[in-house]
């Protein structure tokens, strides 16, 4: 995809090189606005434009869209700060520290990836032993399990890596409480204790934590390729791109990163994350790094071939005005695959059937 | 028109927005032809802000009964509705799109009209009759800014026009039909979630002035009460602000900027609540209050 | 002697009119309608914390038709409602 820079959709061209947008036609902007909105990336695009000094150079009709998107992102950031404070108050009483995950972490740690980042719910992680007291205390402070049938309850508790989603009674905000970054049934088994030990206070508060930089990127990569919802695939790549650009200037960063990926048994999702960040977003990643990760992370040729055909179609779904049958099929196969990675086959098939029917009923 | 609407779509220029609508549903084309007759409908001369489709839903549902779906950016936020409601669905859907994507404004659920540079905001509690009042005021020479949403600019507090066909319900439809000779009303659709609905064509002059903002001078919370005399009561500004906040669609998105914009609006306006059974009399009072020089 | 102060945890904006005061709490996004008396206390505390006795004396000097009892009842109500929404907190008085 070396020629990508010229033939790529405007959103990708913009993310690769914001300055290229000074040559955009009206139709390119229209295309960018649609794809970015569909991929939950418009506020991020607006932030990148501002940082690239493009503010005064945008067409008049683009400005209000950017302004509007940034308002939404700011409201999400405000909500993350407030919810974090409430969570801290709820869990400090029982002395349970927690790690903010993904978007909430980028925002709380004031990372570039958090600027213009939209949130749908807040994800946190507590230690496995703290899961029960944490749930109890959260319920006492107004977070209640969302209404799920008994099957879904069991699905979450037994096979997945989280409590059933919680929702605050008064504020209506959603919260997912995890105790690991992958479900216990998955074949990859990263050592959670190591992630905890390396974690850092988010803003000087030992109870509110975020993952160490390399672990943050690893987790984002895991999320990208193990989460069934590929509508956020491009956004996850954009997160990883921003994290890499912010952290990779530190001396020894890439060595630590490769070492950590191997140590945590996560070279495979890393291989894909780095590959597609480079290919799609022109993320600056040294060849020696991709080579080292590929060496231990690339799957057998056959499986890799399938992934390399599915992923671009699925990741790129937000770029098409009307995702065609190919993108939809790729999307569905990615969904199946993400579950296949999380659950043994005898649990997976009944689960998928059930979900398919539940979807049609809606 | 129907063919263009179904294929490349029709580009509607409404106020500061350009909307591309695509639909293969005949009553949407008919509604556009009748109610948007005075709008620029040609291929857009400037950037298209939002793209909307009104189309039959998936295969299974289509087979069950004739329905239509509203979709925006590949996403369908509402349940499908009976096909006869397709044009109304477009109007409701467009409101939703603006309320969720135009946060350069504080967006208040209200009808807004203007005369001699003085705009009136009529926030719409259920049963307020704001749209009927608004339609009648428009028939009396007021400029229509919007029958559904006040767009208050966060930058300068000005009200931006977004004039579109005025939504009428139940008894109001016939009241307006008989109100003035110039009134044009589209197809009546029964049994919607809001009862029987129809839309009234906005005056050409309002559409021509759709890029000229206005300054709000009167904030009046109307309540329709059959047979009641007209009574306008002064409303304290703190109370008025609280009620404005309750009617603001995107207040939680805007944060401090929204609070400031709404508080400034309240500061700038005379505030009152008005209970009315007689529309002509209510309009007289609103006009007198709006033109009252005391506030600016 | 306990003293009252504006909350150190919450930032808020406020607009005051004849019929009361509307407060927007920046952190939580909540909006509250408060009485003019509440607004008076908030304004007083914006210029620095004070003990209950000092506040009571100041309020008494502002009003010529309230008795000491009526005033302390009023002050109690104000403090309760402001504390409930987190705008003020009680600390130990600094000498």
- Outline of chain C: globular
Count the strands of chain B? 16
Secondary-structure content class of chain B = alpha+beta
Total number of distinct structural domains of chain B: 2
Distance between the termini of chain C: 10 Å
Structural class of chain C: alpha+beta
**Coarse morphology of chain B:** globular
Biggest interface pair, counts: A-B, 25 and 21 residues
Please trace the helix and strand order of chain B, writing H or E for each element: HEEHEHEEHEEHEEEEHEEHEEHHHEH
**Beta-sheet strand percentage of chain B?**
25-35%
Radius of gyration of chain C: 13 Å
- Rounded radius of gyration of chain B (Å): 19 Å
Describe this structure in words.
The complex is a heterotrimer of chains A (362), B (296) and C (95). Chain A has 362 residues and is an alpha/beta fold. Chain A folds into two domains: 67-211, 2-Layer Sandwich (Beta Polymerase, domain 2), CATH 3.30.460; 213-362, no CATH class. Helix content of chain A is 59%, strand content 6%. Chain A is built from 17 helices and seven strands. Chain A has a seven-stranded mixed beta sheet with strand order 3-4-5-2-1-7-6. In chain A, a hairpin with a 6-residue loop joins strand 6 (200-201) and strand 7. Chain A is globular and about 55 Å long. Chain A starts with a helix and ends with a helix. The model of chain A is unreliable at 356-362 (pLDDT under 50). Chain B has 296 residues and is an alpha+beta fold. In chain B, the strands form three sheets. In chain B, strands 6, 7, 8, 9, 10, 14, 15 and 16 form an eight-stranded mixed beta sheet that branches. In chain B, a hairpin with a 2-residue loop joins strand 1 and strand 2 (17-23). The longest helix of chain B has 16 residues, at 86-101. By secondary structure, chain C is an alpha+beta fold. Chain C has a domain at 2-10 and 37-92. Helices cover 41% and strands 29% of the residues of chain C. Chain C contains three helices and six strands; from the N terminus they run ββββαβααβ. Chain C has helices at residues 36-46, 52-62, 68-84; strands at residues 2-6, 12-17, 20-25, 31-34, 50-51, 88-92. In chain C, the strands form two sheets. In chain C, strands 5-1-6 form a three-stranded antiparallel beta sheet. The mean pLDDT of chain C is 88. The B-C interface holds B 236-239, 241-242, 245, 251-252, 255-256, 259-260, 263, 267 and C 13, 15-22, 24, 26, 29, 31, 33.
């Amino acid at each position: 995809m070396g020629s990508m820079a010229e033939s790529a959709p405007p959103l990708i061209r913009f993310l690769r090189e914001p300055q290229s947008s000074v040559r955009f036609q009206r139709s390119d902007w229209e295309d960018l606005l649609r794809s970015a909105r569909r991929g939950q990336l418009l506020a991020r695009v607006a932030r990148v434009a501002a940082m690239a000094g493009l503010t005064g150079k945008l067409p008049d009709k683009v400005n209000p869209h950017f302004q509007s998107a940034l308002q939404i992102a700011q409201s999400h950031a405000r909500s993350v700060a407030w919810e974090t404070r409430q969570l801290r108050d709820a869990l400090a009483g029982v002395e349970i520290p927690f790690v903010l995950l993904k978007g909430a972490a980028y925002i709380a740690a004031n990372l570039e990836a958090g600027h213009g980042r939209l949130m749908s719910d807040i994800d946190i992680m507590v230690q496995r032993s703290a899961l029960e007291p944490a749930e109890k205390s959260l319920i006492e402070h107004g977070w209640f399990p969302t209404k799920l049938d008994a099957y879904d309850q069991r699905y979450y508790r037994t096979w997945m890596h989280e409590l059933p989603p919680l929702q605050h009674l008064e504020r209506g905000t959603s919260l997912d409480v995890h105790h690991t970054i992958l479900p216990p049934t998955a074949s990859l088994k990263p050592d959670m204790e190591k992630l905890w030990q390396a974690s850092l206070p988010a803003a000087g508060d030992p109870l509110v934590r975020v993952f160490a930089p390399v672990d943050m990127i690893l987790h984002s990569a895991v999320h990208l390729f193990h989460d069934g919802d590929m509508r956020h695939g491009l956004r996850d790549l954009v997160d990883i791109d921003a994290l890499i650009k912010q952290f990779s200037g530190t001396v020894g960063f890439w060595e630590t990163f490769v070492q950590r990926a191997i140590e945590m048994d996560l070279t495979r999702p890393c291989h894909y994350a780095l590959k597609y960040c480079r290919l799609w977003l022109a993320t600056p990643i040294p060849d020696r790094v991709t080579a080292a990760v590929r060496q231990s992370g690339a799957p057998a040729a056959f499986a890799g071939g399938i992934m390399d055909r599915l992923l671009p179609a699925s990741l790129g779904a937000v770029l098409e005005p009307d995702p065609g049958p190919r993108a939809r099929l790729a999307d569905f196969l990615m969904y199946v695959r993400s579950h296949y990675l999380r659950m043994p086959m005898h649990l997976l098939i009944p689960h998928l059937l059930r979900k398919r029917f539940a979807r049609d009923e809606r | 028109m129907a063919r263009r609407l179904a294929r490349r779509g029709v580009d509607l220029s409404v106020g500061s927005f350009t909307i591309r609508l695509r639909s293969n549903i005949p009553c949407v084309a008919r509604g556009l032809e009748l109610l948007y007759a005075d709008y620029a409908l040609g291929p857009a001369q400037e950037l298209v802000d939002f793209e909307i489709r009104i189309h039959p839903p998936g295969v299974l549902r289509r087979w069950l009964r004739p329905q239509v779906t509203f979709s925006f950016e590949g996403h369908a936020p509402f349940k499908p509705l009976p096909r006869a409601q397709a044009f109304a669905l477009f109007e409701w859907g467009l409101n939703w799109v603006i309320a969720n994507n135009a946060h350069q404004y504080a967006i208040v659920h209200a009808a807004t009209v203007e005369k001699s540079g003085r705009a009136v905001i009529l926030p719409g509690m259920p049963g307020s009759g704001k749209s009927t009042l608004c339609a009648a005021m428009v028939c009396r020479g007021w400029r229509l800014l919007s029958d559904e949403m006040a767009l208050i600019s966060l930058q300068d507090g000005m009200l931006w026009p977004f004039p579109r066909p005025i939504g009428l319900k139940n008894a109001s439809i016939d009241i307006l039909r008989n109100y003035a000779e110039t009134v044009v009303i589209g197809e009546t659709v029964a049994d919607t979630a809001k009862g029987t609905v129809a839309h009234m064509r906005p005056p050409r002059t309002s559409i021509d002035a759709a890029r000229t903002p206005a300054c709000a001078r009167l904030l009046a919370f109307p309540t329709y009460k059959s047979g009641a005399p007209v009574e306008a009561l002064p409303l304290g500004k703190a109370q008025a602000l609280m009620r404005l906040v309750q009617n603001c669609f995107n207040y939680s998105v805007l944060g401090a900027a929204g609070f400031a914009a709404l508080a400034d609006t309240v500061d700038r306006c005379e505030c009152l609540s008005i209970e009315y059974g007689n529309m002509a009399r209510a309009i007289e009072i609103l006009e007198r209050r709006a033109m009252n020089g005391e506030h600016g | 002697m306990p003293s009252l102060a504006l909350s150190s945890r919450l930032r808020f904006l406020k607009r005051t009119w004849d019929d009361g005061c509307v407060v927007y709490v920046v952190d939580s996004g909540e909006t509250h309608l408060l009485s003019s008396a509440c607004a008076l206390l908030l304004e007083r505390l914006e210029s620095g914390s004070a003990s209950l006795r000092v506040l009571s004396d100041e309020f008494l000097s502002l009003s010529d038709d309230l008795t000491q009892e009526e005033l302390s009842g009023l002050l109690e109500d104000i403090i309760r409602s402001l504390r409930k929404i987190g705008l003020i907190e009680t600390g130990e008085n600094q000498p």
